[in-house]
């Protein structure tokens, strides 16, 4: 039976490190938007290959059409990235190959994607917005780091990165840097909308299920009343009449 340890062998330490960077909040399951953002930092892997990697990992881990993956599925993504980088075809069989080298990602140096570091970046953006005495290359490096860091709604809410970055964008005089900030904000907004859309669908499904149960219960009660009325000597009009008749 496949498990994260078997998939990552003999590069388990690296896989665990990548997983901790992708999953700074320690969740059991990660949404597709966050995983996609992280996988896009893989070296020498194109968009079509990333889509195939996602589909193969979902099928192999049993998470088809669910919009998220667990640790096993994410480790499978890492293994398939390594396979592509080494010239192999994407297939479930390659997941059992222990001779593959470790996957390579263009992860921003100096950042481990932890919430603490993201809070520091958020505060630094606010400080630069207020003081406006920052070096352009320093700001550019900071934005480059944010462009490579996968985020989700929880991280954006906790760190308030969107507000900090938008505040910084309004103060930036360099048009290219401001444009990169704007694009990053739009990307984060789409991630939030996608997650909220999935939550809305789940809520609607729950409400529909509950409504169906209530309806079935009402139908069942109506049938029971009809059954009782069949044995009443008088027409059933109220609980009092029913008791009196019986």
UniProtKB/TrEMBL annotation:
Pfam families: EH (PF12763), Med26 (PF08711). It comes from the Eukaryota. Keywords: Activator, Nucleus, Transcription, Transcription regulation. This is Mediator of RNA polymerase II transcription subunit 26. Gene3D superfamilies: Conserved domain common to transcription factors TFIIS, elongin A, CRSP70, EF-hand. GO terms for cellular component: core mediator complex; mediator complex. It comes from Meloidogyne enterolobii (Root-knot nematode worm). SMART domains: EH, TFS2N. Belongs to the Mediator complex subunit 26 family. It is found in: Nucleus. GO terms for biological process: positive regulation of gene expression; regulation of transcription by RNA polymerase II. One of its GO terms (molecular function) is transcription coregulator activity. Its main location: nucleus. Residues 116-195 form the TFIIS N-terminal domain.
């Amino acid at each position: 039976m496949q498990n994260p340890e078997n998939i990552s062998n003999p590069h388990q330490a690296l896989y665990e490190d990548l997983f901790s960077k992708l999953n700074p909040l320690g969740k059991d399951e990660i949404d597709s938007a966050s995983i996609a953002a992280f996988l896009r930092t893989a070296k020498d892997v194109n968009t079509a290959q990333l889509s195939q990697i996602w589909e193969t990992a979902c099928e192999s881990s049993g998470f088809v059409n669910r919009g998220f993956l667990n640790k096993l599925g994410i480790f499978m993504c890492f293994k398939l990235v390594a396979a592509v980088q080494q010239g192999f075809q994407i297939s479930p069989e390659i997941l059992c190959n222990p001779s593959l080298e470790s996957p390579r990602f263009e992860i921003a140096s100096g950042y481990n994607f932890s919430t603490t570091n993201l809070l520091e970046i958020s505060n630094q953006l606010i400080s630069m917005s207020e003081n406006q005495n920052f070096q352009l290359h320093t700001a550019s490096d900071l934005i480059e780091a944010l462009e490579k860091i996968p985020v989700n709604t929880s991280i954006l809410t906790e760190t308030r990165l969107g507000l900090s970055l938008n505040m910084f964008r309004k103060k930036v005089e360099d048009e290219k840097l401001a444009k990169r900030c704007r694009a990053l904000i739009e990307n984060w907004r789409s991630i939030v909308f996608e997650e909220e859309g999935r939550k809305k669908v789940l809520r609607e499904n729950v409400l529909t299920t509950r409504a169906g149960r209530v309806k079935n219960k009402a139908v069942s009660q109506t049938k029971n009343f009809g059954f009782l009325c069949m044995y009443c000597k008088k027409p059933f009009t109220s609980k009092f009449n029913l008791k009196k008749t019986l």
